[in-house]
Design goal:
Layout: H1 4-14, E1 26-33, E2 41-49, E3 55-62, E4 73-80, E5 91-94, E6 100-108, E7 115-122, E8 143-149, E9 160-161, H2 163-166, E10 173-176, E11 179-180, E12 182-183, E13 189-196, E14 202-209, E15 217-218, E16 229-233, E17 239-243, E18 248-254, E19 262-272, E20 279-285, E21 288-296, E22 302-309, E23 318-334, E24 340-346, E25 354-360
Parallel strand pairs: 6-11
Antiparallel strand pairs: 1-25, 2-3, 3-4, 4-5, 6-7, 7-8, 8-9, 10-13, 12-13, 13-14, 14-15, 16-17, 17-18, 18-19, 20-21, 21-22, 22-23, 23-24, 24-25
């Protein structure tokens, strides 16, 4: 018969052992610094994860000043094969001899693995305010260009000018919203576009392709006064557009895959905004289906914050600040391992001193 000491040992060995809770994951690194490599300012983050798991982080290299097109701007990119722990040196992926290119955005073709990089091209002297109506492309108008990569961003194609397919000649200018775009469950490419008409009015809408980028069309205007936007598909197939439009974000929903929308003047009072580009993504992992939203959650460009919605974007009860100081543009991307990545502009004295990559898990929020 076991003695008392033996019985006690048996009881202890049978009891479940306490397991220490794993602390939430959070790590970040600055990828682009103002003044680095002779570049005046790096702006406008774009981020994608390739089908092989490589991260591509791109932005504007604004060579002479921090202003938008027209200006001498190139597109630069860094790559990471270990989910953002280490990064390659910055390399130029698009540079033009005259004028400039800017506002990059990425899209992954799930079927082929091809990466699309959309961006604006401004011929010499041409930006949104100086472009002219009457042309669908050419030296007097701002253009929507794309380049593609089939080898995880190592090499890139020649430029593709999408402007003739999607620009109404009556419009003064169009450009694609920067950041991260996506392919719907029915394989449609959706790229949010900003239209600047001859009345100096901005509207959001979507360029779309149903044949993996071979041909493109453009949808209806969503709401007056809307600017850069992000779009996602909800679990029921509804497309949700979230748009820059004053002191709070404007939202609209589509039942036809992002071509036409209803609730055109709805604003989300829970998403305060300083009139700035933001990030939006749908996170699906481990049985969870939540929306992620990132922006400078303030009346001015500061307080870069991540927010969660568990009811399709109707409420945003959970949030956490990434950077409380000056901050501006951001894009958010769920990664294949279940973590979440954000690429965003931040600084100590002003919002565009550097572009930072952050990676964390859902429990950190």
């Amino acid at each position: 018969m076991p003695n008392n000491l033996t019985r006690r040992s048996l009881l202890l060995s049978a009891a479940p052992m306490a397991v220490a809770a794993r602390p939430p994951r959070f790590e970040q690194v600055d990828l682009f610094h103002q003044g680095e490599n002779g570049v005046h300012t790096y702006r406008i983050p774009a981020l994608i994860e390739t089908r092989k798991g490589t991260l591509l982080a791109a932005c504007d290299a604004r060579h002479e000043n921090s202003r938008d097109l027209p200006g001498r701007i190139s597109l630069v990119m860094r790559r990471s094969s270990d989910r953002g722990r280490t990064w390659s040196a910055a390399e130029t992926i698009r540079k033009v001899p005259e004028g400039g290119v800017g506002d990059p955005s990425f899209l992954l073709d799930r079927k082929t693995g091809r990466i699309w990089c959309f961006h604006a091209y401004g011929p010499p002297g041409i930006g949104t305010p100086t472009a002219k109506p009457g042309a669908v492309t050419g030296p007097d108008t701002l253009q929507v260009h794309a380049i593609t990569s089939d080898d995880d961003g190592v090499t890139w194609s020649k430029l593709i000018d999408l402007t003739p397919q999607i620009k109404d000649p009556a419009w003064q200018a169009i450009f694609a919203t920067s950041g991260t775009h996506f392919q719907t469950s029915r394989a449609r490419f959706l790229v949010p576009i900003v239209v600047f008409d001859p009345n100096k009015s901005l509207t959001s809408r979507n360029a779309y392709s149903d044949d993996n980028g071979k041909t493109w069309k453009i949808g209806s205007a969503i709401a007056p006064g809307t600017d850069e936007s992000k779009v996602i598909e909800l679990a029921d197939g509804t497309v949700l557009q979230n748009m820059r439009n004053g002191k709070t974000r404007s939202v609209a929903r589509s039942k036809d895959g992002g071509i036409t929308f209803d609730n055109l003047n709805a604003h989300d009072a829970g998403l305060i905004d300083p009139t700035c580009n933001a990030g939006l993504a749908r996170y699906r992992h481990g049985g969870k289906d939540v929306l992620l939203f990132t922006n400078a959650a303030s009346a001015k460009r500061e307080n870069l914050t991540v927010k969660l919605s568990r009811d399709g974007g109707r409420t945003w009860p959970e949030s956490r600040t990434l950077h409380a100081g000056p901050a501006a543009y951001s894009t958010v991307l769920p990664l294949r391992d279940g973590t979440i990545a954000v690429l965003y502009e931040r600084g100590d004295k002003h919002s565009v001193e550097k572009i930072t990559f952050a990676r964390f898990d859902l429990s950190w929020i």
